[in-house]
Write a structure and sequence with these properties.
The protein contains 12 helices and 12 strands. The strands form 3 sheets. Strands 3-4-5-8-9-10-11-12 form an 8-stranded parallel beta barrel. A two-stranded antiparallel ribbon has the order 1-2. The longest helix has 20 residues. The model has no long low-confidence stretch (mean pLDDT 98). It binds methyl (2Z)-3-cyano-3-phenylprop-2-enoate.
Length: 397
């Protein structure tokens, strides 16, 4: 069925359909498919789904010159903790990714894997089963009481990383990035958003460390900047993007309520711009909008209305991808893309509209999504959403 009480606006004559270069990619539109966890990877081995994943990415990359960022992919077993999310650390995983990357490139589009480490958002019992730690920035500051009791029941208490373990994570990010680039990816996105491990170091709500990785704005930025510097050294700054959710509360992060949290992001983004001005400009900074503080809430719920990511434009002078309930707000998109370095990510509606690029261009109705099929092991709700013409022949109206 199509989304009701929604008035699309054709955007094909706006900047959204003006080419832009991101890294080595000559994009023909400024619509980005953002990282979307779908929980269809095979267990054991965190292998992208051999039967469905290539079809899913193929369907969504048909408009040539479109940028796709993959679902979050774990950099190592220790960075994981969800059995049905994929990784990018093993050769079996990269075999599947290579066929996905190849298909997207055959469509004339581009694909950037998102490098993911869960930290305290992982399932402690899953990690325990595999003889792995339950990691975060600090000991014992649990995401919520449910996670705390799970950790205690399975005797895998939340562990603040030692400096040696921090260095190992940085090595794992490099290994994962090299795997992706040598398998044909166009770049990688470093996941520093949504309450996962890197975010747990950035945010004082979860980082109570007393060493050089905690206790001040500079120290809480150290981990992310060390990863960025090593990734840039290894794969080149034009092949590295980074995602932040400054206002996000998902995973029990501070969000805009903490009056000093924006200072933290200004500092980090300022240090990225300093690096850019010394010749190491990242391909883009990707931002989740304050309109979406928690991806489990439906459109309109949970917005932090007092905030805006606009301040970041005065610090960062490179490309900016913005994500957060834009599909239902074409009038906002029309305004935002008047800025020459802004790209727009459409998440949930790229799940339910494989031909989203065409629908946004022409102002066509959008297929509704089925949230209860977002994270389940089924082809239904993954590759069976119709294109607009297919929907019409199904009699949708
Ligand atoms: C992959 O990176 C993410 O940020 C994933 C999520 C978020 N936010 C997510 C949300 C709901 C269920 C599983 C993962």
């Amino acid at each position: 069925a199509f989304v009701e009480d929604f008035t699309p606006i054709p955007l094909e004559d706006t900047n959204l359909f003006k080419p832009i270069r991101v890294g080595d990619c000559m994009l023909r539109n400024r619509i980005v498919m953002p990282p979307l966890t779908r929980m269809r990877a095979h267990y054991p081995g965190n292998i992208p789904n051999r039967f469905w994943a290539r079809k899913y990415y193929d369907q969504r990359s048909k408009s040539p010159g479109t940028m796709i960022i993959t679902e979050g992919a774990f950099i190592s077993p220790q960075a994981g903790g969800y059995d049905n999310a994929p990784g990018v650390w093993s050769s079996e995983q990269m075999t599947e990714w290579k066929s996905i990357f190849k298909k997207v490139h055959e469509n004339g589009s581009y694909i950037w894997p998102q490098l993911w480490a869960l930290g305290r958002a992982a399932y402690p019992e899953v990690l325990k089963r595999d003889g792995l730690r339950f990691d975060s920035a600090s000991d014992g500051i649990y995401m919520d009481t449910e996670m705390e009791s799970k950790a205690k029941n399975c005797k895998n208490l939340q562990h603040g990383l030692t400096k040696v373990e921090i260095k190992q994570y940085i090595k794992d990010y490099i290994h994962a990035a090299k795997n992706c680039m040598s398998s044909g990816a166009d770049g990688i996105e470093l996941h520093a958003a949504n309450g996962y491990l890197i975010n747990q170091f950035i945010d004082p709500i979860s980082n109570k460390r007393k060493d050089e990785y905690g206790g001040s704005i500079e120290n809480r930025a150290r981990f992310i900047l060390e990863i960025v510097d090593d990734l840039v050294q290894e794969v080149g700054s034009e092949h590295v993007g980074i995602r932040f959710s400054p206002y996000g509360t998902f995973g029990t992060m501070s969000g805009g309520e903490n009056p000093t949290i924006m200072a933290q992001y200004c500092y980090i983004i300022g240090k990225l711009e300093e690096r850019a001005q010394k010749g190491k400009r990242l391909a883009y900074i990707h931002l989740v909008e304050p309109r979406v503080t928690n991806p489990f809430l439906t459109e309109g719920q949970g917005a932090y209305s007092e905030g805006s990511n606009d301040f970041i434009y005065s610090i960062w002078k490179g490309n900016i991808i913005r994500a957060g309930n834009f599909a239902l707000h074409p009038e906002i998109v029309e305004e935002l893309v008047k800025d020459e370095r802004t790209l727009i990510a459409y998440g949930r509606y790229f799940i339910s509209n494989p031909d989203l690029v065409t629908r946004v261009a022409k102002g066509l109705p959008l297929n509704r999504y089925e949230r209860d099929k977002f994270y389940v092991m089924s082809e239904e709700g993954y590759t069976d959403y119709p294109t607009y013409t297919e929907a019409l022949s199904l009699g949708w109206s």
